[in-house]
Amino acid sequence: MHKFAVVLISIAALTLSAPAQAQRDFSAVEIRTEIVAPGIAVLFGSGGNIGVSYGGDGTVLIDDQFAPLTPKIEAAIAALGASPVRFLINTHWHGDHSGGNANFGKAGALILAQDHVRDRLLAEQAKDGNEAAPAALPVITYHDGISLFLNGGSVRTIHAPHAHTDGDSIVVWQDANVVHMGDTFFNAISLPFIDLDSGGSAQGMLAAVDRVLGMIDDKTVVIPGHGPVSNKVGLVAYRAMLADVIGRVGAARKAGKTLAEVVAMKPAAQYEIKDAFISGDAFTTAVYKSFDSAMGHDHDDMDHGDKPAEHHH
Fold first, then answer.
1. What pTM value is reported for the model?
2. CB 14 within 8 A of CB 193
3. Phi and psi at residue 222, in whole multiples of 5°?
4. Digitized pLDDT (tens) for each residue of the chain, 313 residues in all
5. Where are the domains of the chain?
6. Alpha carbons 124 and 16: distance in angstroms, whole number
């Protein structure tokens, strides 16, 4: 399982905690901007893809990458002619999507996220042994979703339960026909990372993709959490991959095959991307383990309580 261990190390780099972010050198990172619709852009840098919704009523930011990149992100937002960030939505808790929260929070942005995101960010702060950083935490949380009405349209979030994590939000611009899928969609750069320890599951990933496919058309701009901007065709292909690997792994598991035996079958080999941070073996392992965890997830999200859904191994 040496290869899988290497993958875990690279994932650890992806989801860097605040102290680790401070030590990494981001000086060479450039922020690239792609305008995908009037008043909507995507920023690419290091970490998750950032969505920007801007206009006369203020700027909404979807994710914020790593803390040291905040000045560059702010400069890219200003270059769009947009005002400073008024609302910040985290698609999930990982540090490559929420690392800049404290900076934007201190600058006056109101942070919104699904309930479990705040819980996991609090737990992460406690684990780091540092003083709590209230400015980094969502001020408004929601269970199923929330809508913001500004700049002549709406920005709506939809909770995708137990997908990449237990707190994923899909962000929809209904009027502009744009959707930001966070890490429920990894496009062309790697097989998807399913964070089982944060309540994610392969079945939830597939359900999230199906939910989005039911809302979009051939002209929809689909922003993934990682990789280039895509569309319905790209998402349909991604769904086929997910369904194929889940189906193969599920059938083998039902036939009594062990994890090692299923990994040796290489069910994801045809979809593997060279030098990607999630290998076919790592993805297969996560899918196999998802069958155990998914059984405990079926009814978790009926609970509207304060506690994160319990994770079953």
1. 0.89
2. yes
3. -110, 115
4. 344 333 333 444 455 555 555 568 899 999 999 999 999 999 999 999 999 999 999 999 999 999 999 999 999 999 999 999 999 999 999 999 999 999 999 999 999 999 999 999 999 888 877 666 899 999 999 999 999 999 999 999 999 999 999 999 999 999 999 999 999 999 999 999 999 999 999 999 999 999 999 999 999 999 999 999 999 999 999 999 999 999 999 999 999 999 999 999 999 999 999 999 999 999 999 999 999 876 546 534 433 333 333 333 3
5. 2-302
6. 10
Cβ atoms of 13 and 96 closer than 8 Å: no
Query: At 130, phi and psi to the nearest 5?
Result: -95, 170
| Assigned CATH topology for domain 2-302 | Metallo-beta-lactamase; Chain A (3.60.15)
Residues in the chain: 313
- Taking alpha carbons only, the member of 107, 116, 133 closest to residue 22 is 133
Tokens representing residue 138 in the block? 């969502």
